[in-house]
Amino acid sequence: IRFSDSLINGFYKVSTTLKFEKVLYADYFIVACTTSEEILRRYFRRNDVEYRWLLDNAIQLDNESFVVSSVKINDIALGTEIRFVDDCLEVVCTHPKLADLVGKPVNFSINTNTLYSKASHQLSVFITELTRGVQIAFHYPDELSKVQCVPVFSGQDKNPSVTFGDNSIEINSQTDEWIFPISGVVFAY
Fold this sequence. Notes:
The structure is a single chain. The protein is mainly beta. The chain is built from one helix and 17 strands. 21% of the residues are buried.
């Protein structure tokens, strides 16, 4: 996760990269973005949604405020279709080769660009599925000189390592340790 200055007053530009391995359950998946916590909760119950983002409700939800800049499975660049469903921007990710990969472990890579309110003073990252090994990196601009990191992990590794660098924080669990759902980290600034 990388915060940087944006052209919109009061907001950071946010670039995210999410990489993970898991069994592909269908020949498509969805990336969802909404301004409503209630609507976002519905997307946590769906197994065809791989990434979710809650956008500040002061921002117009459109395909410029939340952009999936690239999405791949096993280095196959997927096509995307944007649709709006019940106040949620859904990015449907597909490729003809995915049908041959259903039921097999694959490597996902999802990159997004969006905005995040400077007034929020915290960014929360949630792990929503049973996960083996976690690495979370947060890069931030100079103006956020005092960022605190609060990992909230449940599972074998309740105390992941936290490394502070120049304008960055990295959280790592052991690669073979299981992390339970609803774990995560809060970056407070």
